[in-house]
Write a structure and sequence with these properties.
The protein is an alpha+beta fold. It is built from 23 helices and 15 strands. The chain has one domain: Alpha-Beta Plaits (2-Layer Sandwich). Helix content is 35%, strand content 13%. It has a five-stranded mixed sheet with strand order 13-12-1-15-14, with helices on both faces. The protein binds iron/sulfur cluster (2 copies).
């Protein structure tokens, strides 16, 4: 057993109002510069919808993530080292600007400098790439609130007609997305230059800008399309999980500014020796359970002793015990990973939305808060469980149903309790309610500060990625070899991330 710590996030989709504040604040901090105009480290998609870049979930086309080989190992879907070598100068499976969108601004000078005349001056859209006037035909959230061609959603395409129709009638929900800082990141394994790495101390996946040669294999390798190419510097960039903030105990910018207060941050302890086996289970629908099994109980004395022995500091262990992410992911099992079938073991988790069902029940004259009605509705009225399952559990409805039933039971319990009708108090439900409805800042974000004195020792540690194709280290990547940088200087990163030149 090799215990490692992972900083992880949970988002409660019931509360997301699609305001895009998280995306905008993230952009202002990280990608508001030349070459990154089209980039949104955090974006919010309406579901059903095509997402950003468009139809990124169509892995037949984009070849992201891992596939299981016949002998039970893992192989990058986009191909191993030989194929990479052949395509290194012209990677064929890259999204183009057409798939993202052409970023634009407006020519505001016409508003202020136009001579007096009969016509009202208009600020024309101008391409931020070419500087020429352009017609705006798409954007990063073009599907917003079902505004786009929802039937082109790759997940909806897989469902039968009846489900599609009922789904489109039923509701929409918002899905905020960022890099999942996966336990088994295919982006890291795809990098021929060893520039991408997973930090040993907290599992944050980063790109070493000095080592990146701009091959863009990581862009292809990430099935979530959360690595981006900076056209100005010629380097790959991605969400950093705001590590300069995390290192001093502050939440990520997207979490701090989230209007719905729906994001939770905390530590998970996991067994790095079991990651590859968990990602390689034969049946895709077993991947969620395998991912859960890798996560260890920090309250178990044996695990705690082993964690301390592995060099995890006492205050990190204490934080893991208080982690809201651990409670929602492992104890209550209400938070699920996005597309576990990509076999990357993502560490951003989602609580599927329940609210529309309550509203739908209330509209039919039924008590939308009664437990019996809610449970019945999950099985019958709410056919989109299949759609949610296609997002969060490789098509297996059981984990989604469990999550929704738990949320429904909590609602019903609290409703009865508030009306003075609850027979017995239920501490587990009280705790879940507190976590989901009332949790204060310090309960939502349990982030231990970094131990800079351990930086050198951590450089000797190994990354959790074990490689692929029979345990061999991933092609030219950091997999299985010492992590090059553990704790970087904030000023160095700021300088890198804000300069416009390579
Ligand atoms: S989502 Fe996973 S595979 Fe994609 S960039 Fe992030 S860590 Fe890598
Ligand atoms: S800021 Fe919060 S509520 Fe608004 S879109 Fe982002 S995740 Fe949703």
């Amino acid at each position: 057993m090799r215990i490692m710590a992972q900083m992880a996030m949970v988002m409660n989709l019931d509360k997301c109002i699609g305001c895009h504040t998280c995306s905008v604040t993230c952009k202002q901090v990280w990608t508001n510069r030349t070459g990154m105009e089209y980039v949104w480290f955090n974006n919010v998609e309406s579901r059903p919808g095509q997402g950003y870049p468009r139809r990124y979930e169509d892995q037949e086309k984009w070849q992201g993530g891992w596939k299981r080989t016949r002998n039970g190992g893992l192989k990058l879907k986009a191909g191993g080292r030989f194929k990479k070598l052949l395509t290194i100068f012209s990677n064929p499976t890259l999204p183009s600007l057409e798939d993202y969108y052409e970023p634009w601004t407006y020519d505001y000078r016409t508003l202020t400098d136009a001579p007096a005349g009969d016509d009202v001056p208009v600020a024309q859209p101008v391409s931020q790439i070419t500087g020429r006037p352009m017609a705006v035909t798409r954007g990063a959230n073009w599907d917003d609130a079902l505004g786009g061609p929802v039937n082109q959603d790759p997940m909806l395409e897989k469902l039968n007609e009846q489900v599609k129709l009922e789904y489109e009638e039923a509701f929409l929900f918002y899905l905020p997305r960022l890099c999942n800082h996966c336990l088994n990141p295919s982006c890291v394994a795809s990098c021929p230059s060893g520039a991408m790495y997973k930090r040993a101390e907290d599992g944050i996946v980063l790109v070493d800008q000095d080592q990146c040669r701009g091959w863009r294999m990581c862009v292809t390798g990430c099935p979530y399309k959360k690595v981006y190419f900076n056209h100005s510097t010629g380097k790959a960039e991605k969400c950093t999980f705001c590590y300069p903030r995390i290192e001093v105990g502050l939440p990520t910018v997207c979490s701090e500014t989230c209007v719905g207060r729906l994001r939770y941050l905390g530590l998970l302890l996991y067994d790095a020796d079991r990651v590859t086996a968990a990602a390689s289970v034969a049946d895709e629908q077993d991947l969620y359970q395998a991912q859960l099994d890798v996560i260890l109980d920090p309250n178990d004395d044996v695990i705690a002793a082993a964690a301390l022995n592995a060099g995890i500091p006492q205050d990190w262990l204490d934080a893991a015990r208080k982690s809201p992410v651990y409670q929602l992911v492992k104890e209550y099992q209400v938070a699920l990973p996005l597309h576990p079938e990509y076999r990357t073991l993502p560490m951003v988790w989602y609580i599927p939305p329940l609210s529309p069902m309550v509203n739908a029940l209330a509209q039919t004259g039924h008590d939308g808060e009664a437990q019996g009605n809610l449970f019945g509705a999950i099985g019958s009225l709410r056919i989109p469980v299949e759609y949610l399952a296609s997002l969060f559990s490789a098509g297996d409805p059981a984990p989604v149903t469990w999550s929704l039933q738990t949320l429904a039971a909590m609602r019903a319990y609290m409703s009865k309790k508030n009306l003075g009708e609850a027979a017995d108090s239920d501490p587990a439900m009280d705790r879940l309610y507190r976590l989901l409805a009332l949790a204060k800042y310090e309960e939502r974000y349990v982030i231990p500060a970094a131990h800079t004195e351990q930086a050198h020792q951590l450089e000797e540690a190994v990354c959790s990625v074990a490689g692929y194709e029979g345990g061999e280290a991933a092609f030219g990547s950091d997999s299985g070899r010492p992590v090059p940088v553990s704790i970087e200087s904030f000023h160095l990163t700021k300088e890198r991330q804000t300069r416009d030149q390579p």
